[in-house]
Amino acid sequence: MQPVVMYYNQELFDEVGIEVPETWSDVEEAIEVFNDNDIAPFSLVSGSVW
To answer: Cβ neighbours of residue 30 under 8 Å, at least 6 residues apart?
Structure first.
């Protein structure tokens, strides 16, 4: 399995007052916080084909 690389905007995490997630549970909580603040939690980029 290849490692996953995730880029994030620290300013947005600071804006909503949460830490960068370290577990999947943390990611789920961050999604809720971003959605509550009308911020799209994910953006897909790249030309990778699955």
So the answer is: 13, 18, 21, 41
Structure tokens at 34: 């971003």
| HSE (side-chain half, CA atoms, 13 Å) at 18 | 20
The model carries a pTM of 0.76
Structure tokens at 40: 């799209």
Which secondary-structure segment (H or E) carries 11?
helix 10-16
* Interval 8-30: pLDDT, tens: 999 999 999 999 998 989 999 99
Task: Output the pLDDT for position 50.
Answer: 58
